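Handout, page 2. Input:
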Amino acid sequence: MRTFTLAAIGPAEIEAARAANPKAFGDPLRRALVIGSWAVILGYLLYSLWLFEFYKLFASSENAVRMITRMFVWQDMDTWMYEQIYVGIAQTIAMAFLGTLLATILALVIAFAAARNTMPLWLPRQATRRFLDVLRGVDQVIWGLVFVRAVGLGPLAGVLAIFVSDTGTLAKLYSEAIENIDRKQVEGVRATGADGARTIRYGILPQILPVFISLSLYSFESSTRSATILGLVGAGGVGMVIIERFRAGLFDQVAFVVLNVLVVIAVIDWISARIRKRFIGERGH
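Output:
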C-alpha cells in the first residue's frame, strides 16, 4: 500500500487531488452563492427593521408597560356597564352560530356540484370551484367591511361576512370528503334501483356525516373568534365593545372583556369536543 507523509505532499499533489475530488474541497461558486444568499437575507431583515421603525418599540416601552399595568389593575368596577358587555358577547355567539349554520346548509348543497364523482361535467364543476375560490380567497374582515358598507353597522354585517367566508371554505372541504367516499356503498344503493336523491341520502351522506359534523363544529369555534375581530370593523358583537373601550383608554375593561371572550371560547370548545365524541367517537379529537 502506498503511503504519504505531509512532507511529501506538494502543491502539485494537492492540485491533482482537488481535480480528482472537487467536492471534497468544496465548490467555490456554491460557497459564494450561500454567503451571498445569507447576505441578502440579513440585508432584507435590517431593511425591514428600519422600514417598520422597530426602534420605536424601545422608545415607547414606558407607554407599553403603563398600558399593560392598567389592564391588570381594575378600578371602579361598579361602573363598567356589564349589560353592554354581555349583550355584545351574546351577539358574537349568535353571529357565529347563525353565520356558520347558514354556511353549513348552503355549503353541503354546493359541495355536490364541486365534487368530481357527483358532478362529472367539467365546466359546471370548474365554475363551482372557482366561485368557491373567490368566496374563501377574500379574508373575512374584508367581507365584513363590504357588508358594513352595504347594510350598515351592526351584527347583520357580521353574520353575512361569516356566512360568505365559511360557505367557500366548508363547501371546498365537504367536496373533498365526498370525493373520498367508498364507491361500493354508493353502487350498492344504486343496485337496489334507488334514484339520485336516495343514493345521496343512503349512499353518500352516512359516509360524510362524521366529517360534516367535525368540520361544522370547528367552523363554529373559529367563527366565534372571527366574530370578535369583525366587531372591530363595525360588524357588531363584542368587538365593538372592545374597540369603544380601547379608544376611551379603559384598558382594564378591555382586559375584562377579553377574559370573558376566552372563557366563552373555552366553553364552546369543550361542548364541541363532547358533541364530536358523542357522534364520531375518539376520532373527533
